[in-house]
Amino acid sequence: METATQPSPPTPDDFQITAADIAVFDERQRRLESLKPKLSFALSAAVIALIGLLQTDWKSVVSDGFLSASTYIELLLMLLGWCFFSLIGTIFTALLLINPLIKFVLSRTPHAKAIRRYNAAVAGFRTWLARTRRDWWTGLSGLRFEEELARLFRAAGWDARVTRASGDGGIDILGSRAGVKFIAQCKNHKLPIGPAVARELYGTLLASEAQHAILASVSGFTKGVRDFAKGKPIELIDLDWIIRKHMEHDASWKSLVSPTTERKSRIRISLRRSI
Question: Which of 60, 95, 172, 235 has the most C-beta neighbours closer than 10 Å?
Fold first, then answer.
């Protein structure tokens, strides 16, 4: 069985930036993020305090005298309200003012757009790399496995959607490949799938409008399943097939690396080697 070639991870060269550029951006982002809660609280507290001062009837406070019990109670309630609304205001201030301000300041950093694309590509590559591990797939819940397999089918150019319905005869995914309608059943069990599941899927296929059935299992199949599927429009998909197809088709992070940038990077690298 042929193994798909694993692509290289994104590098700063692919985006015409350097490690120093990334370090400057990361340090500025770290400092701004550390200031965010302080700025949010200070700004919201100042606004709430100003509102409280403007709404307080200072004439009555002065006329009652600062040593009266009612004055102390009023000031205490105002202080408690100030603390409460300051904490609530901190959240809204961070969302509405501080976060956009931080994004604006970071956008003024040299090569900010390229660095963001690089970070997104690195995160995408790590997510892609995780899906090449067997334990990643075996650790999925049943529904998540269905969703991931449907996403992989779409990455391979098929039409596929998760049914999310009960009473569907065991159909987890509906789709079509090259004009041929198919149904798919997904099993994320610890033990190999037995022939009873394959017989049930075949019966569902005969009662449906589909022409093809797919049985997917991360734990493989017993010999009885493989014998039953021979000569029938049932395709057995195991974990080796899933990982191989993922490596062949599911590399969406590559779209973040533009061909022009890659070509320029290769030229620069070639020039460096020739010097």
Answer: 172
Q: Is 124 among the domain residues?
A: no
Same domain, 143 and 176: yes
Domain count, the chain: 2
CA dist 33 → 22, 88, 97, 98, 200 (Å): 16, 19, 13, 10, 55
| Residue-level pLDDT, tens digit, the chain, 275 residues | 445 567 788 899 989 999 999 999 999 989 988 877 777 666 666 666 666 556 555 565 555 555 556 655 666 666 666 565 555 555 555 556 777 778 888 888 999 999 999 999 999 899 999 999 999 999 999 999 999 999 999 999 999 999 976 555 679 999 999 999 999 999 999 999 999 999 999 999 999 999 999 999 999 999 999 999 999 999 999 999 999 999 988 777 777 675 445 445 444 444 444 44
Q: Are residues 172 and 110 part of one domain? A: no
Using alpha carbons, list the distances in angstroms from residue 185 to 140, 151, 195. Answer: 15, 14, 13
pTM over 0.85: no
Domain span holding position 74: 13-115
